[in-house]
Amino acid sequence: MRVDVKALTHWIIYKGYRVRFTLRSSAAVAGQLTTADGAELTFTYDPTTKTIRIPGESIRINDYGWEVEHIRDEKSAQQ
C-alpha cells in the first residue's frame, strides 16, 4: 500500500516547488525539493502527522496542504 501524498502535493504546488521522490513507502516519503529560485532542499514527510521536515524546520500541514504550524530546529538555528 502506498502512502497518500495528496496534502504534500498541494503544499508543493502552493509553494511553487518541484519535487523528486527518493523514497516512497507506506510509512514515509523522502526526496528533493527545488525552490523557485533553484535552491535544493532535502525533505522527509510523515503522512501520519502530516509533517514535512526540511533542514532547520518542520512544517505541519492540513489535509489541503495549508501550513498549520512551523517548528524551528533549535540545533540548526544555533549554527
What does this structure look like?
The longest helix is centred in the first third of the chain and has 10 residues. The model has no long low-confidence stretch (mean pLDDT 91). The protein is built from 2 helices and 6 strands; from the N terminus they run αββββββα. The chain has a 6-stranded antiparallel sheet. With 79 residues, the chain is of the alpha+beta class.
Number of helices: 2
- Mass-distribution shape: globular
Strand content: 35-45%
Strand order, sheet with most strands: 1-2-3-4-5-6
Q: What pattern of helices and strands is seen along the backbone?
A: HEEEEEEH
The value of Rg in angstroms is: 12 Å
Keywords:
single chain; 2 helices; globular; alpha+beta
In short:
The protein is an alpha+beta fold and 79 residues long.
Indicate the topology:
Layout: H1 6-15, E1 18-24, E2 29-34, E3 40-46, E4 51-54, E5 57-61, E6 67-72, H2 74-78
Antiparallel strand pairs: 1-2, 2-3, 3-4, 4-5, 5-6
